[in-house]
Write a structure and sequence with these properties.
about 775 residues, alpha+beta, 23 helices
Length: about 775
């Protein structure tokens, strides 16, 4: 077993080695890092700089190190930006010296790239803070392809002596970097998942096979820390792990630590795009992508198991291991679905659809003529079972992006510590309640936690009914607020068997989209408010009175009409004069989606009595809430023993708190405003150019296009065709509205102008194929 020398001894060895490479004794020796090797920067008196590596005793043979350095020299001679090897005075590419413990160290020297800096850090990639753009990954894909082509053309040199990242090197009896199952922290079930994954990988990699198009010399450590930037150039360093392997392994390494990053889908797509400008990726290659990611992840667990105590190893154990176990589990699940389809002669999608219908029933709603099967998500991207990425311009539940690493970490950490109901004291729920209430006006200062938007609206109606002593409810005549019995009885925008309840009145909200004269505007407003007055009079005459008016500030189910501020203010005034309360359903418009404000009702300068929250609150974790005043809260609480077992638990609070922090830290309100304005600026020219479009709808990051040949001729058939065509272009949107003719787009708030440009590009392509 080798003895690790200390820094002083390593410097002494480095100074002794200077003369072997023709470097003067006054050369300055600066520590860079120690992991497998001691690495120093050498600053010579003549201004030149070099990197010196002092290799760990016995880690690699002389032949293996010479092979690496000869490979590096060949790449450099071919014009690639890689370190230039400085040979020793005897002509060898390395020398060897013995330390004070009698251990022999190989030493090599390479030219230092002046004016360069690391492309990024693994920690930034993993925690989502890296701000690299997809174009960088496109260039990395090109760089990898150029290297692979270069090595394929030159072939394997004589005397080649390097380990192989082949079937045995990755998942054999003794993998190159160690057995990933050796980590003590793995549970029995986790270890079982890894074992099954290794078995599956051996089968799949064996079937993938080895041929000149998919297997050759690879870098094998193509991480952001091993890429330098120098001006506009990208430089590859640290070939310590290079050897023979699948080319796809390098591509998986480039993006692996970005898996939790919100923009992972874009990065992966960009790497493929860059690579395929130089080398092809076949269908067989793409089908092996998930398997290669799993193989890469397993190598890191094996590496960490052999180096406990090392900071990187402990990071892998604490942070990366859970991700790798999940990655293997998803890989196995996807693989089983495919195999099940192969065994039955039915496609995996059809097999899953049959199983779903047999368990959830044939009426469980699915999008698209051919339903999509997603297995993972990141940021604004979703990945299907075939490894295809889709731009998500529809889903508002992952409010701050699919699988945002901060939300995932908050939930995981709290779930590992404590999860309990709210009848015990716990700081987490109180901290979150305080943070949430701080986003509202001072008078809205109490919160009831729930589990969903439906439950929130149900509770709000109950509070309003008990406070007013009335039962009458006013809603829009094409709206949806949830699926409880009470809410089904006031649903006017979806198919429900329950008839509109006797205590409910539905009114038409005014839509003042397009050019409207002041006189016409005033007339429409007066007409709409008169209908509200009639509804109040009808409820009163029937003995129901007025309990509340319930509305979504965006009126999204209605098709995103342009509702004037005076209308909402007028409704509030009339309802309150009749003794009722105002309930703002913020499930669609809340948490900054409208861009101009945190809450949708703030667009109208109206402060409601009750605010209901749901969907986006926990970024996919089921959380809801009712925000109200102290007086309404105390009145309800004093008359009802109200508790909710799961609502407000510490895990839910952790998810909700993470969402609030992300909204603030990533300035997502401003992003919703800026990107929303950008999108509308791109949508209007489409309306001007296409006869099948009537107008632009929405606010912030909830926007749409009205489809029809005129405002009075809606075309839901064309809207449906556009939605289906966008699916084929790997973009998710939907449709909404009384006539289902408004294209509905409400992406996660991390949607950028670049995403918007991509959306419009593909939407433009769809519209070019549409005929009225």
């Amino acid at each position: 077993m080798s003895i690790t020398m200390d820094h002083t001894s390593a410097v002494d060895l480095a100074r002794t080695a200077l003369a072997r490479f023709g470097l003067t004794p006054d050369t300055r020796i600066e520590f860079v890092k120690y992991r497998e090797n001691w690495v120093y920067r050498l600053r010579c008196g003549d201004g030149r700089s070099f990197a010196m590596r002092i290799h760990r005793p016995g880690y690699r043979s002389d032949e293996a190190i010479r092979t690496e350095l000869n490979h590096l020299a060949a790449l450099h001679e071919s014009g690639l930006l890689v370190p230039e090897v400085l040979p020793a005075l005897d002509g060898d590419t390395m020398c060897a010296l013995v330390d004070e413990y009698g251990q022999r160290h190989q030493i090599d020297v390479q030219r230092w790239f002046e004016g360069s800096e690391s492309l990024g850090a693994i920690s930034e990639a993993f925690d989502g803070s890296s701000d690299l753009e997809p174009d960088t990954f496109r260039r990395l894909g090109e760089l990898a392809a150029t290297m692979h082509t270069c090595t394929q053309n030159s072939g394997v040199p004589a005397g080649f002596a390097r380990d192989a990242w082949d079937l045995d090197g990755l998942v054999g009896e003794t993998p190159l970097w160690g057995d990933p199952r050796a980590l003590e922290e793995l549970s029995t079930s986790d270890a079982d998942i890894l074992t099954r994954g290794i078995t599956a990988l051996r089968h799949d990699l064996g079937r993938y096979g080895v041929h000149p198009g998919n297997f050759g010399l690879v870098h094998a450590d193509f991480t952001p820390e091993n890429i330098l930037t120098r001006g506009d150039d990208l430089v590859v360093i640290d070939f310590d792990d290079f050897g023979a392997g699948w080319y796809l392994f390098d591509l998986a390494t480039i993006v692996f630590f970005y898996l939790p990053h919100p923009r992972y889908g874009e990065y992966r797509r960009a790497v493929f795009e860059g690579y395929t400008t130089i080398r092809p990726l076949t269908d067989d290659d793409l089908k092996m992508w998930d398997a290669m990611l799993v193989a890469r992840g397993l190598t890191y667990l094996g590496w960490a198991g052999r180096r406990r105590g090392d900071d990187t190893a402990e990071f892998i154990v604490a942070e990366l291991a859970p991700l790798v176990v999940d990655l293997v589990a998803v890989y196995l699940e996807t693989r089983e679905d495919r195999n099940r389809g192969a065994d039955t002669g039915i496609s995996p999608a059809d097999s899953l659809l049959e199983r779903r219908s047999a368990t959830l029933g044939p009426h469980a709603m699915l999008f698209y003529t051919s339903p999509l099967h997603f297995v993972s998500g990141a940021g604004v991207w979703l990945r299907d079972v075939d490894g295809e990425d889709y731009l998500d311009a529809y889903n508002n539940v992952p409010h701050v992006g699919h699988c945002h690493p901060r939300v995932v970490d908050a939930v995981h950490t709290q779930l590992g510590r404590l999860n309990i109901h709210t009848r015990y004291l716990n700081e987490r729920i109180v901290d979150y309640a305080e943070s949430l209430l701080a986003t509202f006006e001072p008078g809205l200062n109490r919160v009831f936690f729930t589990n969903s938007g439906s439950e929130s609206n149900e509770l709000a109606l109950r509070i309003a009914r008990q406070h007013t002593g009335n039962t009458g409810i006013i809603v829009s005549d094409f709206s949806y607020h949830g699926n409880t019995i009470a809410l089904a009885e006031l649903t006017t925008g979806l198919t429900v068997k329950e008839p509109l309840a006797a205590h409910v009145r539905a009114v038409r909200v005014p839509d003042l989209a397009g050019p409207v004269t002041e006189a016409a505007r005033a007339g429409e407003l007066a007409k709409a408010l008169a209908e509200v007055e009639d509804a109040i009079a009808s409820l009163t005459a029937a003995g129901h009175g007025v309990s509340a008016a319930l509305f979504d500030p965006l009126f999204s189910t209605e098709g995103l009409p342009w509702v004037p501020r005076e209308y909402v203010q007028g409704v509030a005034r009339l309802v309150r004069a009749a003794g009722g309360l105002i309930i703002s359903d913020e499930v669609q418009s809340g948490f900054g989606r409208v861009g101009s404000s945190m809450w949708g009702y703030q667009m109208y300068d109206v402060i409601p009595d009750l605010v209901t929250l749901g969907k986006p609150m926990g970024n996919g974790h089921p959380v809801g809430a009712v925000i109200t005043t102290a007086s309404l809260s105390d009145e309800f609480g004093s008359n009802n023993l109200y508790f909710n077992t799961f609502a407000g638990n510490p895990v839910s609070a952790a998810a909700g708190a993470a969402v609030l922090d992300i909204i603030e830290d990533e300035q997502l309100l401003a992003n919703a405003q800026v990107v929303g304005d950008h999108v509308r600026g791109l949508l209007q020219p489409l309306v001007d150019r296409h006869d099948v479009l009537v107008g632009v709808r929405g606010r912030g990051l909830f926007f749409g296009l009205e489809v029809g040949t005129s405002p009075t001729d809606p075309r839901p058939d064309i809207a449906k065709e556009i939605v289906e065509r966008m699916r084929t272009k790997k973009v998710l949107i939907s449709k909404v509205g009384r006539d289902e003719n408004v294209l509905k787009m409400r992406p996660p708030l991390v949607f950028t102008t670049a995403h918007a440009d991509l959306l419009i590009e593909r939407l433009t392509g769809c519209l070019g194929d549409i005929r009225a």
